[in-house]
Amino acid sequence: MKVYDLGRLPWAQTQLVYHAMAYLGREALILVSPAEPYVCLGFHQDMKKELDLDFCRSRSLPVFRREVGGGAVYLNSDQLFWQVVLKRNHPLVPLRRDLFYQRFLEPVVKAYQDLGMPARFKPVNDIIVNQRKVSGTGAGEIGDCVVFVGNLIRDFDCSTMARVLKMPDDAFRERFLLSMRKNLGSILSELGLEAYEKWDHKALAPVLTKRFSDLLGPLEPGRLDDELKAAMDDLAGEMLTDQWVHFARKVRPGRLVKVRAGVYLHYKVDAAPGGLEAVYREDDGLLKEVSLRGSSGGQPEGALSLAEKALEDLPLDQIANAMTRLYEEHNWQDWSMRPQDWPKFLGLAKGKPTSR
């Protein structure tokens, strides 16, 4: 098996290379960074729902739709991408997705530990340092191969990430920005400027190669040969077209943004006339910073303020019981929103697609 340490490449090639590798059926570890910043969409995401396209155009940020899962993410040269391509029947690829993530994130955890960061794996697919997420990941099947991609983060531009994503309003965007700054980490944030300057792509690549070789076996240097370049060019003819990048999905009301494993920012909308809007943070199974809005006269006087207080710091599995007690206490018999409606309205992040 080969390792392709490609240094910095033009932004599109950092994505095309592992797609081409998979369609050629080559097993490989690829290490690469983008020469220019760009935005990357997960395969199943709706571009118009996920991204603030006006902002992206104003910053000349190109958008790429990859064939693996995960969410939309802002990428730049402060991230070293690792991309693992293996045949589906490779003996190291387990059938259970949770075991797959744990096995193939272990080299990245150890690489961070080699830098002096107390990294650990957090199910299902995160790496945490001091309760902060330090790697985004995505996985999928391309051709006859399984592909797993992620990054080592030297620094992360939370401000641009918050602007790239489409948000219901500026208040929701500010909440997301604050949550990212609290919950996302990097070499710079955890180890300081001296370590950030020391651990550039050239220094990080051998560390990652060593740790992945412990799992995958000996890795021989590879290069962008003619066959691989031709496959990348062929894919560019499809994957860089507007038809591929923009293909639409059914847009559903509301918004769910993953910050890290266990932390999600929610915007929920009840489509019924006079329906509610809810914004809250789901923090390791608890409701936080709950904000409710509704049309005038759509609910009993003062009900939204009381409901916010009842829901704050509440475990997700106790929503129905808490709201039942609140309704009985205030005799809210005429409110069309019933206690049993609240869990469905607020929803859960569990079981939904995760983002990078």
TrEMBL record:
Sections of the chain in a coiled coil: none
- What InterPro entries does its record include? aa-tRNA-synth_II/BPL/LPL, BPL_LPL_catalytic, Octanoyltrans_LipM/LipL
- Pinpoint the BPL/LPL catalytic domain residues: 23-220
This protein is called what? BPL/LPL catalytic domain-containing protein
- This protein's source sits in the domain of life called Bacteria
